[in-house]
Amino acid sequence: MISVTLFALALLCPLAGSGIGVALRRRLPEHHLSLESIDVIKLAMGLMATLVALILGLLIQSANLYRSTIEIEYRQILASIIHLDEYLRAYGPDANAVRERVSSVAIHSFRERWPGEDFGPAAPLPDAGRSQYTDVQQQIVALHPADAEQRWFQSQALQITNRLADLRWLVTSQQLANAPLLPVFILIFLCSIAIFGGFSLYAHPNPTVFAVIALAALAIAGSTFLIVELNNPFHGLLHISSDGALAVARVLGK
Questions:
Q1: pLDDT of the chain along its 254 residues, tens only?
Q2: By CB neighbour count within 10 A (0-12 exposed, 13-18 middle, 19+ buried), where does 184 fall?
């Protein structure tokens, strides 16, 4: 998984930088490590560390907002599917075939999002390349309402299918438009090497220093892992729960 790989890199880069700093400390002349030089190193490393912390904070905030947006939109999709099934059931027995179609489309969509979950049986879709919501709309339009009540439920069902199609493409477009973060992470990793290398220049190596550096490296690695996981709402360890989709699958067609 990409999140685990980046976590490992984010953890190793500061440790590698610390090792480089310790090696350089032993080779640099004493006057390069004077109090004035150390003060300059502290200021430069402090500025760089502040910028890295700011970037990580902004990335976490942006990733959390992105995940929350996707989760809200997907909950709206689930609610719309339930409403569509309810309106078709209220229409009458003539809409049972459409309800079965809606159930099949929804379950196939759920399986794409959560392939490891069991959403129950579903009829095969005849053409996966076509817009399945358009097929559902065609079946709804083909219904022949006998009275004003059935006409109202038919119109409401068509409106919901329009909303479902819009939400589906909105979720898809947002996932495709998600900016790649690898160049940003590479920059953060290089900065972490420089920062921790600079820290090791003005501190004598000892177990306490190594423990503090390891904890700081773990914090950077944890932040990197969190950013990647939040930017992949349907994959990874922090994926959006499938409980709502499972509940919808149990309700559909009943």
A1: 788 888 999 999 999 988 888 888 887 777 777 777 788 888 888 898 899 999 999 999 988 998 888 888 888 889 999 999 999 999 888 888 888 888 888 888 888 888 877 777 666 665 554 567 788 888 888 888 888 999 999 999 989 988 888 887 777 766 655 556 788 888 899 999 988 888 887 777 788 888 888 999 999 999 999 998 888 887 778 888 888 888 888 888 56
A2: middle
Which residues have C-beta within 8 Å of that of residue 85, sequence separation ≥ 6?
99, 102, 103, 251, 252, 253
Q: Which residues contact 238 (CB under 8 A, 6 or more apart)?
A: 226, 229, 230
Model confidence, pTM: 0.78
Q: Which of 161, 157, 180, 181 is nearest to 169 (CA)?
A: 161
Radius of gyration of the chain (CA): 27
- The Cα–Cα gap between 19 and 211 comes to 13
CA distance 112 to 124: 14
